[in-house]
Amino acid sequence: MHVVPSLDPDSPRVRFGAELRRLREAAELSQAAVASRLGCTQTQVSWLEKATRTPSRSDAERLDMLFGKSASVSFARIYQRIVAQPGSPMWFRNWVEEIEPNLLVLRSWDPLLIPGLL
């Protein structure tokens, strides 16, 4: 089960990724260098930049510490906009903050769904 985010340029998730890429390139850091500071993989940093991964609160806090307040961007504020989007159910905030960052496998059981072609 893979969810493709909307690529609306006004989306907070897209802005998060764009700011991450802009600041990373301005600081002349590779994705691997940022990943080592965040405690994740280079692929996960790439997913953040492409807006295909929802950042966690700790990602936002670590990025704020990494790039400092002089960056004029608050990743924590952008993160709050991501989890507080209108229409998002309340359980989603806990999912984004606590479950998704630690998730290794997501399995779904749908007895009325037959995957593949018949």
From TrEMBL:
Annotated PROSITE patterns: HTH_CROC1 (PS50943)
Span of domain HTH cro/C1-type: 20-74
CDD domains linked to this entry: HTH_XRE (cd00093)
InterPro entries: Cro/C1-type_HTH, Lambda_DNA-bd_dom_sf
Gene Ontology molecular function: DNA binding
Protein name listed in UniProt: HTH cro/C1-type domain-containing protein
The species this protein was found in: Nonomuraea glycinis
Lineage: Bacteria, Bacillati, Actinomycetota, Actinomycetes, Streptosporangiales
